[in-house]
Amino acid sequence: MNPVRRAFMGRSAGLALAAVIPGAALAQSAASSIPARQFQPQPGDWRTFDVTTRVDLIAGNGPARLWIPLPSVETPWQQGLGDRFVSNGQARLARDGAQGVRMLAVDFGAGQPQPFAEVTSRVRTQSRAAAAPGARVAEDRDTLRHATQATRWLPTDGIVRETALQATRGARGDEAKARAIYDWVVANAYREPKVRGCGEGDIKTMLETGNLGGKCADLNALFVGLCRAAGLPARDVYGIRLAPSAFGYRELGGNPASLKGAQHCRAEVYLQARGWTAMDPADVAKVMRQETPDWIKRSDHPLVAPVNRGLFGGWEGNWMGYNTAHDVRLPGSPGEPMPFFMYPVAENADGRLDSYAPDDFKYQITAREVVG
Q1: On the chain, which terminus has fewer CB atoms closer than 10 Å, C or N?
Q2: pLDDT at 2 over 80
Q3: Cα Rg for the chain, rounded, in angstroms?
């Protein structure tokens, strides 16, 4: 049996079983009693933020390197307004040299006491909604071709291609195919809180094993990979939440006083009639799994439905994008390319440090909204 179908059937059986278990039925009933909310991001006033990342490394016996992602996205919904930084190492603004990824790169000499770096980026953001048909901004062919290519973690053949064809069967036109893939991800994949960080984005393994649980870098990578396999230009947008949601959803915002763990990957698909269009099926799954104590398993639930509608074509401007890059090579690093770059990264004589290990790799990210 196809592992994807097996996973879907397994989840369907679980839902059917929940209907006859009193405890599960009570939980579902409690979730259903939650009043409906609104979620309708619309372009409007710009918001300006100073986003500060501070990294402190534990001094080792040898030299060390550090890379901190900076906002590289310049679009109708985000504008960079400059960076300033301080460090006791040799710090410089750098790029990956291939995909335009901006970063602060720092070299620390052997024995450097209390190595640190701090960088503040000022950025303007605004909410997005799907452009009206015919109002698209034209994109160059090379960019669109790049957005259909396979990467190491986003293959477009084999089971990925098979799943894309299955998900889009009967769909006519690029927007109908994008809608079908979005709905397929929401229906089949799910948020798994136990996954570390934002996940790995290894969609081939997800599909082959039938384990479609993950976080944003898994679920939105699944959307992007299936779009590419179906011939639709698509890309992940790696970034971070900066402020609470204006629509009252706890899981769709960040605490500006402490944004460690607020990294969030979104997605875009290029539609011929609308241009680059915002997508975020991963946040639909997050609301379903974590917005309430009970796991809501229906996308038409009154708490979920507004988000499911709004995140097909839009997203809220309380978030900043770093870059859209896959397979990122860090300048000066002997290590393997990274599947994505939205966390600080450091290396020393022992190799690449674990960005999720607070005892060896300490960082803090904060945001301050600039008013006036």
Answers
A1: C
A2: no
A3: 21
Residue 228 has which token pair? 């590419």
The architecture that CATH gives domain 3-19+38-42+127-322 is Roll (3.10)
pLDDT tens digits for range 109-166: 998 999 999 999 999 999 999 887 777 778 899 999 999 999 999 999 999 999 999 9
Burial 173-202 (b: 16+ CB within 10 A, else e): ebbebbbbbbbbbbebbbbbeeeeebbbbb
Q: What distance in Å separates the CA atoms of residue 284 and residue 288, rounded to the nearest whole number? A: 6
- Residues with Cβ within 8 Å of 269's Cβ and at least 6 positions away in sequence, in order, are 174, 178, 223, 224, 227, 232, 233, 234, 276, 277, 279
pLDDT tens-digit readout, 323-352: 999 999 999 999 899 999 999 999 998 889
Measuring CA to CA, how many Å separate 179 from each of 98, 227, 280, 287, 309?
31, 10, 12, 19, 11
Phi, psi of 98 (to 5 degrees): -125, -45
Q: Which of 20-34, 41-55, 154-168, 252-266 has the lowest mean pLDDT?
A: 20-34
- Domain positions in the chain: 3-19+38-42+127-322, 53-115+327-363
Q: CB of 49 within 8 A of CB of 242? A: yes
